[in-house]
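Closing statement on the phosphoric acid mono(formamide)ester sub-project.
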Amino acid sequence: MMNSPAPAPVHPHDLDGRAAALPHRHLLGIEGLTAPEINLILDLADGYVEQNRGTRPKSDVLAGRTVVNLFFENSTRTRTSFELAAKRLGADAINMSVDGSSVKKGETLIDTAMTLNAMHLDVLVVRHQESGAPKLLASKVNCAVINAGDGQHEHPTQALLDALTIRRHKGALKGLTVAICGDILHSRVARSNIHLLNIMGAQVRVVAPPTLLPSAIDRMGVEVHHDMKKGLKDADIVMMLRLQLERMQGQFLPSQREYFHFFGLDYDKLALAKPDALIMHPGPMNRGVEIDSLVADDIHRSVILQQVELGVAVRMACLDLLTRPDSRPNL
Ligand code: CP
């Protein structure tokens, strides 16, 4: 027997009693969002976590809507969770394979987007190797655009799911010390997290060798450390980042073995953080390079798979909010 759709979670309401909406047409980055807007997304996502864990995880909030995933770079977590999120909300979800598309015949990014736009989409979820590609597309299409990771710029839904994971464990983000460790230079996850954590009142440290830090990092409102012992001291959250070998041209490190010795998270280094510090990683992991396997799989400390679970709920919240009729144009 088929289950009937789950009732939609209770939506946060504004002061006039209307379902609250984001004052944005698109989600292109965390930069530019406000703390109340981030809390609105996280509050709605909290409701979707419960829906997903229940016996009736599907609802019809997005019935009749169409969501297209347009990924020019590889992905496991983000693409699958956007597809699942759209389907859980009752939308038609389409994964467009760039490898099997007319992009391979030379069709441009803009022509691809305008072609899809002509099919009356509601949301276009875009991952692209060039920073700014989702913003460019947003100026050419009528539907909402969600940035699923652009170059080294931003990955907003990753930062939102990280925030939800932290909030559910620690109650709030304000006042926490978060150490983001590893390849900050190539990481859009780091940039989105730095913006979000600063907006929400957390103290952010970045811990990396100088070669893996952007030159303007000290203008991003973070403490900079080159030594894990200092960077992890009394941290509430230890967020490890993947060494993005595919984006490295030239020599950034003497060797991966030496990198693990100085910057890889093992139990000795973890002991410097608070005893209840959470271990996070956006994935995919390079085990034995930036994180020891035992630490990554420690069910008492690591929340890496919870991050994946909560990613579906966060993406449901983003799809829901951006398709509400009262979503307003981006300012
Ligand atoms: N964290 C993340 O973006 O993972 P995927 O590349 O697998 O989507």
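The chain is about 35% helix and 15% strand. With this model delivered, the sub-project is considered complete and its resources will be redirected to Aim 3.
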